[in-house]
Design goal:
18% of the residues lie in helices and 26% in strands. It is built from eight helices and 20 strands. The longest helix is centred in the last third of the chain and has 13 residues. The chain has a nine-stranded mixed sheet. A six-stranded antiparallel barrel has the order 5-6-7-10-9-8. A two-stranded parallel ribbon has the order 4-12. A hairpin with a 6-residue loop joins strand 1 and strand 2. It is of the alpha+beta class. It holds the Pfam family Queuosine_synth.
Length: 390
């Protein structure tokens, strides 16, 4: 039985500190710098990050783009409002990609066989408007906690993606209640064109093209991976023992150019800095404990100066991953093989993200840093301020 409790990752946050809009400009937000060596903190702005990175360091960010995954429609027959949040296509069930894993509300009323109709403009569209997309609930997922398998049918003459764009909008988290600004502010400036995620990799929202240019001029490399953010972004850990929580799988890609950059960076004695928890999970998921050998810079640098035998340390390396799936769950006690420093936001209590950052630093350091941020009136969560953990 684990001695770690989910309550260990809880904290009290004043509601007024939940950010309702992004900083303007993006890189003007506050940044708390946490030094793992001694637990000390500094209070800076995000544009100061250039002072904490050295030539030869490697930034790795998640380039995924958020899709217009929130669909508001009406239940056929009753006219009741129904909300559907697209999480991931299930090509294993339908090669055309018309079947999706979704979260639905109200969950109790949307049972198998329920049909939802969507119109351009969402739930506020007049009922006389033409239906552009229809959905049928075909099965339950996630122990019936609002999770459904849904089959979508676009209107005649429309492709599915076109119909989703007509009916959907970018899904802001439920704690952002009154944002009416540009939805592009919930996308990173380096996001790819294709849309695959149900939520943004929010640590990357602080970067501007100008800041990235300044970083590159200093000799800091910038590479991207892709992880399609899915259901666990919306789930808190409900089990008392966090080791009993089951992570859902998410699709990710780590290309060979990223692997080569990691090798070169570590071989030269520089740091791999992950932009956000999704980049951390991508890089650490791409670590293969049975790959290559002692020459791996991932292994050699991590154990530099130790007397352990090559037999026990000479395995493991980051490898290319294309169209792979991960359910990696990082919590205190986990080993980080690739990532040396991390940029992240301030996370929801009792979440797997709190456990991940507590694994990278320590739980005590993270809790102290969060309390310092609250006292300094930092802005929390997706549109909130940043933390650099070094």
């Amino acid at each position: 039985m684990s001695t770690m409790r989910t309550d260990d990752f809880d904290y009290t946050l004043p509601e007024e500190l939940i950010a309702q809009a992004p900083a303007e400009p993006r890189d003007a937000c506050n940044m708390l710098v946490l030094h793992r060596e001694d637990g000390s903190v500094e209070h800076k702005h995000f544009f100061d990050i250039i002072d904490y990175l050295e030539p030869g360091d490697l930034l790795v960010a998640n380039k995924t783009r958020v899709m217009p995954a929130r669909l508001m429609g009406h239940k056929k027959g009753t006219g009741g409002v129904a909300e559907t949040l697209l999480l991931k296509r299930r090509e294993d069930i339908d090669a055309l990609g018309h079947v999706w894993e979704c979260l639905v509300k109200p969950g109790k009323r949307l049972k198998q066989g329920a049909v939802i109709e969507y119109r351009p403009g969402g739930a506020h569209a007049p009922m006389s408007a033409p239906v552009c997309l229809t959905a049928e609930v075909i099965d339950y997922v996630d122990d019936n906690r609002g999770g459904r398998l849904v089959r979508f049918t676009p209107a005649d003459g429309m492709e599915l993606d076109e119909a989703i764009h007509e009916a959907g909008r970018v899904p802001l988290p439920p704690y952002i209640t009154d944002y009416e600004g540009d939805p592009e502010k919930y996308q990173t400036v380096y996001a790819m064109d294709e849309e695959h995620s149900a939520a943004a990799p929010t640590a990357g929202l602080h970067f501007t093209p100008e800041l990235i240019e300044r970083l590159e001029e200093k000799g800091i490399q910038f590479k991207t991976v892709e992880l399609e953010v899915g259901i666990d972004t919306f789930r808190l850990v409900e089990e008392d023992d966090p080791t009993q929580h089951v992570m859902h799988t998410e699709r990710y890609h780590v290309n060979q150019d990223v692997v080569d950059a990691v090798h070169a960076t570590k071989a030269a004695g520089h740091r791999v800095v992950a932009v956000g928890t999704t980049s951390v999970r991508s890089l650490e998921s791409a670590f293969d404990p049975e790959a290559v050998a002692w020459e791996s810079p991932c292994v050699a640098r991590r154990f530099e100066g130790r007397d352990d035998s090559a037999d026990s340390l000479g395995r493991g390396d980051i490898v290319e991953r294309r169209d792979a799936k991960t359910s990696l769950y990082l919590m205190p006690g986990s080993t980080f093989h690739v990532v040396d420093a991390m940029i992240t936001n301030f996370h929801v209590p009792r979440s797997t993200l709190m456990m991940l950052v507590s694994a990278f630093a320590t739980r005590e350091q993270i809790m102290a840093a969060y309390q310092a941020a609250i006292e300094k009136r930092y802005r929390f969560f997706s549109f909130g301020d940043a933390m650099l953990i070094v």
